[in-house]
C-alpha cells in the first residue's frame, strides 16, 4: 500500500510519523499531492538523490496547441476535478529526432499535444521558508529536445525547486508569414506561459515565486537571453543562467542577412502540403491547421535540408504578440531589457566534435580551414557571407603557419562565431546598462574522462550538462560513458553548487575541493572569467579582438532598415546549388 503525503500550500507535510516510509529498492511507493490553480496533482518521491525529492511530471501549463490553436499563442489549460496523476512525463513536442544523444529517451512519445512541465522539489518536513526556483529551457536548435530528457532530481536535492519545460519546436513553434496572421514566436510564448504557470503555482511545491532563475543551454540559452529582452517576460524571473547561447548568436533569431526568410520558408512548406493560397495568410492558416501534424513536420525538415539554410524556423522580431519588439542590439542599446543577475558562459571547444575535418587524425590545411569556416555561414546571402568570412579569416587564421595552429585557429573561429563572441559581446552591453546587477562569465574547459574526441580538444558542446545534472546519474553511466572518475565527480559537484548557489544568493560560490576558486563579477572595467576545470581558476579576459570581430559580423547581418516582407521574395533565387555543407552538423550540435 502506498504511503500518503500531502503537499499543502507551501510545503510537504508528512501524514505519518514524520519519517520517510520507503527508500531505494523498497516495495512501497511514496506519493504526495499538490494543489494548483487548475486542480490537484499526485506526484511521487524518488530516493536516488542524496535526499528524497518529490517529482511531479507531465503537468499541463497550456491547452494542447492543436486544430484551431495551431500557430496561435498558448491558452491557459483547462481545470480538472478530482486528482490528476503527475507520475509520467507528457509527450515530447514533434521534432527532428537526434541520434546518439545521451539525453534522449529513444522510447519517448512525440505529439502536438506537448505543452507540459515537470517539477522536482526536495521532500521536506521542515519548511518554514520557500526555496529558490530554477526553470530549465532545453536546447536543440529550436527543432528538437524536451524538458523530460533531463532528470533534475539530483540538482533539486541541492536545495532548489527545479522545473523543466517543453515548448513547440520547428514550424509548430516558429512558422511565420511575417504578418499579423502568423507572426511566429509561438514556442517563445510557450516559454512565457510556462513561467506564468510557475509564478502562480510554484509556492504549492515549496518554491518561492519571487526567486526564480531561468536556465538554458544552447538554443535554450539563446531563449533565456531573448526572455531577458522580452517585455512579455518582465517580472517572471529574477536571475538568468545562459550556457552556450546568446540572443546575438547567428542561430538565435532571424537576421535580415539570412537568405531564407520566414515568409519564404512558410510559402515553401505550405506549397508542399497543397495549401496554395499563398497570398492570403488567413486562408493559408486555415488550411495549415487542417494538415496532419506529422506530414507538416516531414515537409519542414525536408525543405530545411533541401535549401541548405541551416535553421529556417527560429524566433523573430515582431510586434503583433510583442515577444521581441526590436532586434536585441537595439533593445540593449536603449537599456530595454530585464535588469537581472546573470551567469553565462561557453565551452572551450564547442564545435570540436561536429566537424569531421577537425576530428580526424591529421591536422587540416589552410584550404580546408577556409572551407570549414565557409560551411558555418550557409544561412547568409552570398554577399554577406563574403564579408563575414573575411572577418573570420582575418581574426582567427591570419599569420597561422603550422598545421596545429591552423587547426586551433579554425576551431576557435567557429566557436567564437557561434558561441563565445556573441556571448561576450552581449555581456559587454548588459554590464553597461545594468551595472547594479551581478554578472558572471565562465569558460567550461574540463575534458571528461569519458571523452572520445581527439586529445587536443577539451570540452565539447553540451558536455557541461552531464555535470549540471550530476555525472554520477545512472542514465549517463549506462550510455557508454562508464563510471565517472574522481575529477568528474569533483567538477559535477562544483557546477551543481555554483549554479544552485547563484539561484539562492546571486553569488556562484563553491566549496568543492580544488574547484572552489573565487569567482568575481564581470564588469566594464574587470573582465573576470572563471575557467571551470577540476582545478578551476579565474583570469582576466582580453576580449577586444573577438568582440570587434563580432560587431563587424552584426553590422553585416543587421540592415539598418530591413526591407518589407514582400521585398524578400527575390532572395529565394539567390540560394546557391553548391555541394554539401555542414548545416546538418549545426542542427545536431545544438541538441548535444
From TrEMBL:
Top EC group: hydrolase
Official protein name in the record: Carboxylic ester hydrolase
Span of domain Carboxylesterase type B: 35-537
What gene does this protein come from? Answer: LOC101856266
Tree of life domain: Eukaryota
User: Which family is this sequence assigned to?
Assistant: Belongs to the type-B carboxylesterase/lipase family.
Could you say which residues form the signal peptide? 1-18
E.C. designation(s):
3.1.1.-
A Pfam family the protein falls into = COesterase
Q: Is Signal one of the keywords?
A: yes
Question: What are the UniProt keywords, alphabetically?
Answer: Hydrolase, Signal
Q: Does the keyword Cytoplasm apply?
A: no
- Organism of provenance: Aplysia californica (California sea hare)
Amino acid at each position: 500500500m502506498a504511503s500518503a503525503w500531502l503537499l499543502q500550500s507551501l510545503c510537504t507535510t508528512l501524514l505519518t510519523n514524520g519519517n520517510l516510509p520507503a527508500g531505494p529498492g523498497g516495495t512501497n511507493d511514496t506519493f504526495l499531492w499538490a494543489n494548483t490553480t487548475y486542480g490537484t496533482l499526485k506526484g511521487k518521491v524518488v530516493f536516488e538523490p542524496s535526499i528524497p525529492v518529490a517529482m511531479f511530471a507531465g503537468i499541463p501549463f497550456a491547452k494542447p496547441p492543436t486544430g484551431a490553436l495551431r500557430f496561435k499563442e498558448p491558452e491557459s489549460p483547462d481545470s480538472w476535478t478530482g486528482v490528476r496523476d503527475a507520475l509520467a512525463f507528457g509527450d515530447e513536442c514533434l521534432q527532428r529526432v537526434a541520434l546518439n544523444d545521451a539525453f534522449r529517451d529513444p522510447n519517448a512519445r512525440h505529439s502536438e499535444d506537448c505543452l507540459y512541465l515537470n517539477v522536482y522539489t526536495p521532500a521536506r518536513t521542515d519548511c518554514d521558508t520557500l526555496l529558490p526556483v530554477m526553470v530549465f529551457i532545453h536546447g536543440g536548435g529550436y527543432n528538437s529536445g524536451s524538458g523530460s530528457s533531463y532528470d533534475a532530481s539530483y540538482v533539486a536535492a541541492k536545495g532548489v525547486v527545479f522545473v523543466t519545460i517543453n515548448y513547440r519546436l520547428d514550424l509548430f513553434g516558429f512558422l511565420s508569414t511575417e504578418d499579423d496572421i502568423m507572426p511566429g514566436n509561438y514556442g517563445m510564448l510557450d516559454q512565457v506561459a510556462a513561467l506564468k504557470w510557475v509564478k502562480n503555482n510554484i509556492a504549492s511545491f515549496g518554491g518561492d515565486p519571487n526567486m526564480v532563475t531561468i536556465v538554458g543551454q544552447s538554443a535554450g540559452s539563446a531563449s533565456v537571453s531573448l526572455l531577458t529582452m522580452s517585455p512579455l517576460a518582465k517580472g517572471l524571473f529574477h536571475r538568468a543562467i545562459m550556457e552556450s547561447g546568446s540572443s546575438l548568436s547567428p542561430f538565435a533569431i532571424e537576421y535580415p542577412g539570412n537568405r531564407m526568410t520566414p515568409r519564404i520558408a512558410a510559402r515553401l512548406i505550405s506549397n508542399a502540403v497543397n495549401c496554395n493560397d499563398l497570398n492570403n495568410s488567413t486562408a493559408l492558416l486555415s488550411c495549415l491547421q487542417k494538415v496532419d501534424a506529422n506530414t507538416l513536420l516531414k515537409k519542414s525538415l525536408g525543405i530545411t535540408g533541401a535549401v541548405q539554410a541551416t535553421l529556417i524556423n527560429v524566433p523573430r522580431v515582431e510586434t503583433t504578440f510583442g515577444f521581441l519588439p526590436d532586434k536585441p542590439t537595439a533593445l540593449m542599446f536603449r537599456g530595454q531589457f530585464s535588469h537581472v543577475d546573470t551567469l553565462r558562459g561557453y565551452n572551450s571547444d564547442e564545435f570540436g566534435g561536429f566537424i569531421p575535418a577537425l576530428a580526424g587524425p591529421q591536422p587540416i590545411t589552410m584550404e580546408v580551414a577556409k572551407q570549414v569556416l565557409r560551411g558555418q555561414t550557409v544561412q547568409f546571402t552570398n554577399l554577406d557571407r563574403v564579408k563575414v568570412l573575411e572577418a573570420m579569416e582575418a581574426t582567427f587564421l591570419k599569420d597561422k603557419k603550422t598545421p596545429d595552429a591552423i587547426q586551433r585557429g579554425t576551431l576557435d573561429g567557429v566557436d567564437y562565431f557561434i558561441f563565445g563572441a556573441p556571448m561576450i559581446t552581449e555581456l559587454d552591453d548588459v554590464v553597461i546598462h545594468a551595472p547594479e546587477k551581478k554578472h558572471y562569465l565562465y569558460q567550461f574547459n574540463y575534458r571528461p574522462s569519458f571523452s572520445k574526441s581527439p586529445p587536443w580538444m577539451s570540452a565539447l558542446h553540451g558536455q557541461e550538462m552531464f555535470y549540471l545534472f550530476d555525472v554520477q546519474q545512472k542514465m549517463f553511466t549506462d550510455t557508454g560513458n562508464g563510471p565517472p572518475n574522481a575529477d568528474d565527480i569533483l567538477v559535477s559537484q562544483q557546477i551543481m553548487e555554483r549554479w544552485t548557489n547563484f539561484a539562492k544568493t546571486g553569488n556562484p560560490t563553491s566549496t568543492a575541493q580544488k574547484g572552489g576558486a573565487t569567482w568575481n563579477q564581470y564588469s566594464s572595467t574587470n573582465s573576470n572569467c572563471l575557467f571551470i576545470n577540476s582545478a578551476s581558476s579565474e583570469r582576466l579576459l582580453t576580449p577586444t579582438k573577438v568582440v570587434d570581430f563580432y560587431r563587424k559580423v552584426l553590422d553585416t547581418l543587421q540592415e539598418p532598415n530591413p526591407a518589407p516582407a514582400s521585398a524578400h521574395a527575390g532572395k529565394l533565387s539567390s540560394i546557391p546549388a553548391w555541394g554539401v555543407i555542414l548545416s546538418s552538423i549545426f542542427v545536431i550540435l545544438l541538441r548535444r
